[in-house]
Design a protein that fits this description.
By secondary structure, this protein is of the alpha+beta class. Helix content is 45%, strand content 17%. It has 3 domains: 49 residues, no CATH class; 57 residues, GTP Cyclohydrolase I, Chain A, domain 1 (Orthogonal Bundle), CATH 1.10.286.10; 127 residues, GTP cyclohydrolase I, C-terminal domain/NADPH-dependent 7-cyano-7-deazaguanine reductase, N-terminal domain (GTP Cyclohydrolase I, domain 2, 2-Layer Sandwich). The chain has a 5-stranded mixed β-sheet, with helices on both faces. A two-stranded antiparallel sheet has the order 1-4. α1 crosses α2 and α7 packs across α8. Bound molecules: zinc ion (ZN). The site of zinc ion (ZN) has 6 residues, from loops.
Length: 277
Protein backbone atom coordinates (compact mmCIF):
# COMPACT_ATOMS: atom_id res chain seq x y z
CA UNK A 1 0.00 0.00 0.00
CA UNK A 2 1.12 3.49 -0.65
CA UNK A 3 0.98 5.89 2.25
CA UNK A 4 3.56 8.35 3.45
CA UNK A 5 4.98 7.35 6.85
CA UNK A 6 4.35 10.81 8.28
CA UNK A 7 0.73 11.02 7.28
CA UNK A 8 -1.13 11.17 10.53
CA UNK A 9 -4.33 9.12 10.53
CA UNK A 10 -2.73 6.35 8.61
CA UNK A 11 -5.42 3.76 8.93
CA UNK A 12 -8.21 5.96 7.62
CA UNK A 13 -5.95 7.02 4.82
CA UNK A 14 -5.32 3.43 3.88
CA UNK A 15 -9.03 2.69 4.08
CA UNK A 16 -9.78 5.62 1.81
CA UNK A 17 -7.01 4.59 -0.49
CA UNK A 18 -8.48 1.11 -0.70
CA UNK A 19 -11.88 2.51 -1.51
CA UNK A 20 -10.33 4.66 -4.16
CA UNK A 21 -8.48 1.65 -5.48
CA UNK A 22 -11.66 -0.35 -5.67
CA UNK A 23 -13.34 2.46 -7.52
CA UNK A 24 -10.41 2.83 -9.82
CA UNK A 25 -10.33 -0.91 -10.45
CA UNK A 26 -14.01 -0.90 -11.25
CA UNK A 27 -13.79 1.97 -13.66
CA UNK A 28 -10.66 0.54 -15.17
CA UNK A 29 -12.16 -2.88 -15.77
CA UNK A 30 -15.29 -1.19 -17.06
CA UNK A 31 -13.27 0.82 -19.54
CA UNK A 32 -11.19 -2.17 -20.50
CA UNK A 33 -14.15 -4.40 -21.19
CA UNK A 34 -16.17 -1.72 -22.92
CA UNK A 35 -13.55 -0.21 -25.13
CA UNK A 36 -10.35 -2.19 -25.25
CA UNK A 37 -10.64 -5.87 -25.76
CA UNK A 38 -7.15 -6.22 -27.14
CA UNK A 39 -4.19 -7.80 -25.36
CA UNK A 40 -2.62 -4.50 -24.34
CA UNK A 41 -4.17 -4.78 -20.93
CA UNK A 42 -1.78 -3.96 -18.10
CA UNK A 43 -2.01 -5.83 -14.82
CA UNK A 44 -5.01 -4.25 -13.29
CA UNK A 45 -3.49 -3.61 -9.94
CA UNK A 46 -0.64 -1.62 -11.43
CA UNK A 47 -3.02 0.38 -13.50
CA UNK A 48 -5.16 1.18 -10.52
CA UNK A 49 -2.19 2.03 -8.36
CA UNK A 50 -0.73 4.43 -10.83
CA UNK A 51 -4.10 6.10 -11.19
CA UNK A 52 -4.26 6.55 -7.45
CA UNK A 53 -0.79 7.93 -7.16
CA UNK A 54 -1.53 10.50 -9.74
CA UNK A 55 -4.70 11.46 -7.93
CA UNK A 56 -2.86 11.81 -4.65
CA UNK A 57 -0.06 13.76 -6.17
CA UNK A 58 -2.44 16.20 -7.74
CA UNK A 59 -3.88 17.44 -4.47
CA UNK A 60 -1.06 18.26 -2.08
CA UNK A 61 1.85 19.01 -4.35
CA UNK A 62 2.61 22.41 -5.76
CA UNK A 63 2.63 22.65 -9.56
CA UNK A 64 5.82 21.35 -11.11
CA UNK A 65 8.47 24.02 -10.73
CA UNK A 66 9.05 25.72 -14.03
CA UNK A 67 12.63 26.11 -15.07
CA UNK A 68 13.09 29.85 -15.28
CA UNK A 69 14.35 30.93 -18.69
CA UNK A 70 17.79 32.43 -18.54
CA UNK A 71 16.76 35.52 -20.45
CA UNK A 72 13.63 37.57 -20.80
CA UNK A 73 11.28 36.67 -23.66
CA UNK A 74 12.29 38.26 -26.91
CA UNK A 75 10.40 41.30 -28.14
CA UNK A 76 8.16 40.97 -31.17
CA UNK A 77 10.69 42.72 -33.37
CA UNK A 78 13.18 39.92 -32.71
CA UNK A 79 10.78 37.13 -33.53
CA UNK A 80 12.89 35.76 -36.30
CA UNK A 81 14.42 33.83 -33.43
CA UNK A 82 12.22 30.84 -32.59
CA UNK A 83 11.22 30.61 -28.95
CA UNK A 84 12.89 27.22 -28.68
CA UNK A 85 16.24 28.83 -29.35
CA UNK A 86 15.56 31.81 -27.13
CA UNK A 87 14.57 29.76 -24.09
CA UNK A 88 17.04 26.98 -24.74
CA UNK A 89 19.89 29.44 -24.71
CA UNK A 90 23.20 27.85 -23.79
CA UNK A 91 25.00 28.74 -20.62
CA UNK A 92 27.91 31.12 -20.60
CA UNK A 93 30.24 28.16 -19.99
CA UNK A 94 28.92 26.45 -23.11
CA UNK A 95 29.43 29.63 -25.12
CA UNK A 96 33.01 29.94 -23.93
CA UNK A 97 33.67 26.28 -24.73
CA UNK A 98 32.37 26.92 -28.24
CA UNK A 99 34.81 29.81 -28.66
CA UNK A 100 37.65 27.54 -27.55
CA UNK A 101 36.53 25.03 -30.19
CA UNK A 102 36.59 27.71 -32.88
CA UNK A 103 40.03 28.85 -31.79
CA UNK A 104 41.26 25.29 -32.22
CA UNK A 105 39.40 25.07 -35.55
CA UNK A 106 41.24 28.20 -36.70
CA UNK A 107 44.48 26.42 -35.86
CA UNK A 108 45.49 28.10 -32.62
CA UNK A 109 45.99 26.93 -29.08
CA UNK A 110 43.27 28.21 -26.73
CA UNK A 111 45.57 27.54 -23.79
CA UNK A 112 48.39 29.85 -24.80
CA UNK A 113 48.63 32.91 -22.64
CA UNK A 114 47.30 35.46 -25.11
CA UNK A 115 44.15 33.43 -25.75
CA UNK A 116 43.42 32.20 -22.27
CA UNK A 117 40.84 34.91 -21.50
CA UNK A 118 39.61 35.25 -25.05
CA UNK A 119 36.57 32.94 -24.75
CA UNK A 120 35.31 34.94 -21.76
CA UNK A 121 35.93 38.22 -23.60
CA UNK A 122 34.16 37.00 -26.73
CA UNK A 123 31.14 35.79 -24.77
CA UNK A 124 30.94 39.18 -23.08
CA UNK A 125 31.39 41.09 -26.33
CA UNK A 126 28.55 39.09 -27.89
CA UNK A 127 26.26 40.56 -25.27
CA UNK A 128 26.90 43.96 -26.79
CA UNK A 129 27.38 43.35 -30.51
CA UNK A 130 24.33 41.08 -30.59
CA UNK A 131 22.46 43.03 -27.92
CA UNK A 132 19.73 43.86 -30.43
CA UNK A 133 18.06 40.49 -29.84
CA UNK A 134 17.00 41.69 -26.41
CA UNK A 135 15.77 45.09 -27.57
CA UNK A 136 12.30 45.94 -28.77
CA UNK A 137 12.35 48.32 -31.72
CA UNK A 138 8.56 48.78 -31.49
CA UNK A 139 8.81 50.04 -27.94
CA UNK A 140 11.48 52.57 -28.90
CA UNK A 141 9.08 54.38 -31.20
CA UNK A 142 6.05 54.34 -29.00
CA UNK A 143 6.62 57.80 -27.58
CA UNK A 144 5.49 60.16 -30.29
CA UNK A 145 5.78 63.90 -29.85
CA UNK A 146 2.22 64.95 -30.46
CA UNK A 147 2.93 68.64 -29.92
CA UNK A 148 4.46 68.89 -33.37
CA UNK A 149 1.42 67.26 -34.88
CA UNK A 150 0.97 70.19 -37.23
CA UNK A 151 4.22 69.37 -39.00
CA UNK A 152 3.63 67.16 -41.99
CA UNK A 153 6.59 67.81 -44.28
CA UNK A 154 9.51 65.44 -44.68
CA UNK A 155 11.59 64.40 -41.69
CA UNK A 156 15.01 63.12 -42.73
CA UNK A 157 17.66 61.64 -40.50
CA UNK A 158 20.73 60.79 -42.49
CA UNK A 159 24.19 59.34 -41.91
CA UNK A 160 23.21 57.15 -38.99
CA UNK A 161 26.30 54.98 -38.48
CA UNK A 162 25.79 51.30 -37.72
CA UNK A 163 27.80 48.13 -37.25
CA UNK A 164 26.26 44.77 -37.99
CA UNK A 165 27.27 41.20 -38.75
CA UNK A 166 26.33 39.28 -41.86
CA UNK A 167 24.31 36.20 -41.06
CA UNK A 168 26.20 34.12 -43.63
CA UNK A 169 29.71 34.46 -42.24
CA UNK A 170 29.28 36.31 -38.94
CA UNK A 171 31.68 38.90 -40.29
CA UNK A 172 31.00 42.63 -39.80
CA UNK A 173 29.36 44.90 -42.29
CA UNK A 174 29.04 48.58 -41.48
CA UNK A 175 27.93 51.81 -43.00
CA UNK A 176 25.26 54.48 -42.86
CA UNK A 177 21.49 54.43 -42.74
CA UNK A 178 19.23 57.25 -43.95
CA UNK A 179 15.59 57.45 -42.96
CA UNK A 180 12.89 59.82 -44.17
CA UNK A 181 9.18 59.91 -43.49
CA UNK A 182 6.14 62.12 -43.85
CA UNK A 183 4.51 62.28 -40.43
CA UNK A 184 0.77 61.98 -39.93
CA UNK A 185 0.30 61.64 -36.18
CA UNK A 186 3.46 63.28 -34.88
CA UNK A 187 7.18 62.74 -34.98
CA UNK A 188 9.53 60.71 -32.81
CA UNK A 189 12.70 61.93 -31.17
CA UNK A 190 15.43 61.83 -33.77
CA UNK A 191 17.71 59.72 -31.60
CA UNK A 192 14.98 57.07 -31.51
CA UNK A 193 15.46 56.40 -35.20
CA UNK A 194 19.18 55.92 -34.62
CA UNK A 195 18.39 53.45 -31.86
CA UNK A 196 15.99 51.57 -34.11
CA UNK A 197 18.83 51.16 -36.60
CA UNK A 198 21.10 50.00 -33.80
CA UNK A 199 18.57 47.48 -32.53
CA UNK A 200 18.35 45.74 -35.88
CA UNK A 201 22.06 46.12 -36.65
CA UNK A 202 23.03 44.31 -33.46
CA UNK A 203 21.67 41.04 -34.72
CA UNK A 204 22.85 38.66 -37.41
CA UNK A 205 21.60 40.29 -40.57
CA UNK A 206 21.48 40.70 -44.26
CA UNK A 207 21.52 44.30 -45.39
CA UNK A 208 18.27 43.78 -47.30
CA UNK A 209 16.44 42.37 -44.27
CA UNK A 210 17.71 45.12 -42.02
CA UNK A 211 16.55 47.82 -44.44
CA UNK A 212 13.08 46.28 -44.61
CA UNK A 213 12.86 45.81 -40.83
CA UNK A 214 13.64 49.48 -40.22
CA UNK A 215 10.92 50.50 -42.67
CA UNK A 216 8.46 47.97 -41.23
CA UNK A 217 8.73 49.10 -37.64
CA UNK A 218 8.49 52.81 -38.46
CA UNK A 219 5.54 52.13 -40.70
CA UNK A 220 3.68 50.04 -38.15
CA UNK A 221 4.13 52.44 -35.22
CA UNK A 222 4.16 55.91 -36.79
CA UNK A 223 1.80 55.21 -39.69
CA UNK A 224 3.54 57.84 -41.84
CA UNK A 225 2.23 58.99 -45.21
CA UNK A 226 5.43 57.67 -46.69
CA UNK A 227 8.73 56.23 -45.59
CA UNK A 228 12.08 55.88 -47.30
CA UNK A 229 15.02 53.94 -45.91
CA UNK A 230 18.42 53.69 -47.56
CA UNK A 231 21.33 51.70 -46.20
CA UNK A 232 24.82 51.84 -47.66
CA UNK A 233 27.39 49.46 -46.29
CA UNK A 234 30.70 47.79 -46.80
CA UNK A 235 30.74 44.07 -46.14
CA UNK A 236 33.97 42.75 -44.70
CA UNK A 237 33.04 39.27 -45.84
CA UNK A 238 33.43 40.62 -49.39
CA UNK A 239 36.60 42.53 -48.58
CA UNK A 240 38.34 39.83 -46.54
CA UNK A 241 37.26 36.65 -48.24
CA UNK A 242 35.59 35.51 -51.45
CA UNK A 243 35.99 38.17 -54.13
CA UNK A 244 38.25 40.24 -51.84
CA UNK A 245 37.20 43.63 -53.08
CA UNK A 246 37.64 46.42 -50.57
CA UNK A 247 35.78 49.69 -50.68
CA UNK A 248 32.74 48.23 -52.43
CA UNK A 249 29.55 49.82 -51.21
CA UNK A 250 26.23 48.02 -51.29
CA UNK A 251 23.10 50.16 -51.34
CA UNK A 252 19.64 48.93 -50.39
CA UNK A 253 16.42 50.96 -50.31
CA UNK A 254 12.84 50.59 -49.18
CA UNK A 255 10.19 53.04 -50.38
CA UNK A 256 6.70 52.92 -48.91
CA UNK A 257 3.59 55.01 -49.34
CA UNK A 258 4.23 58.42 -50.93
CA UNK A 259 7.83 57.43 -51.67
CA UNK A 260 6.80 54.33 -53.51
CA UNK A 261 4.03 55.93 -55.51
CA UNK A 262 5.78 59.12 -56.55
CA UNK A 263 9.16 59.08 -58.30
CA UNK A 264 9.60 62.78 -57.47
CA UNK A 265 9.54 61.88 -53.78
CA UNK A 266 12.30 59.35 -54.32
CA UNK A 267 14.36 62.00 -56.11
CA UNK A 268 13.76 64.43 -53.28
CA UNK A 269 14.87 61.85 -50.73
CA UNK A 270 18.00 60.87 -52.65
CA UNK A 271 18.88 64.52 -53.25
CA UNK A 272 18.57 65.34 -49.55
CA UNK A 273 20.70 62.31 -48.65
CA UNK A 274 23.40 63.15 -51.17
CA UNK A 275 23.54 66.95 -50.77
CA UNK A 276 25.88 67.12 -47.84
CA UNK A 277 26.41 70.79 -47.20
ZN1 LIG B 1 28.85 37.49 -45.37
Amino acid sequence: MYAKPDSHPMTTRIARAEDAMDAALKSLSYRLTETEESGMEPTRQNGALSTMRNDNARVPEAPAPEIAPEIAPLPASAQRVPDAIATGRPSREEAEAAVRTLLRWAGDDPNREGLRDTPARVAKAYGQIFGGYGQDADALLERVFEEVEGYSDIVLVRDIPFYSHCEHHMVPFMGLAHIAYYPTKGVVGLSKLARVVDTFARRLQTQETMTAQIADVIESILRPRGIAVMVEAEHLCMAMRGVQKAGVSTITTQFRGAFRNDANEQVRFLTLVRNKS
